[in-house]
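Posting this for the archive.
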Amino acid sequence: MPSVPRRELDTFPNPSPEWDYTIRIQIPEFTCLCPKTGQPDFAELTLEYVPDERCVELKALKQYIWSYRDEGAFHEAVTNQILRDLVRVTSPRFMRLTGNFNVRGGIYTTVVVEHRAPDWVAASRVDLP
């Protein structure tokens, strides 16, 4: 059966919850509709997160992202909604979603939204020579 868009997000147990590590997911083909004109808006989304007990399942994420294709949404609203839904199902230690929206009327828009668990402290950055 072919895949279809859906709003449900599936997860799986973090295989290494004993330490912090970063998962980075590139989503180069996000589309939604401009709520004012109905014309398509295109964006590249970058999801970065430090999982706690749950990780997002990629096929479900693809179908979830696809579900916005025919929905009107302001860039700011849709980026925040996607992060909110991902945080709800994964409860990550840290999560950042960046939406780089293509030009519309001569203006590019980038929206960055973050979530940080209240008790989580990021490790110090290590720069190797």
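The mean pLDDT is 95. The first strand starts at residue 11 and ends at 13.
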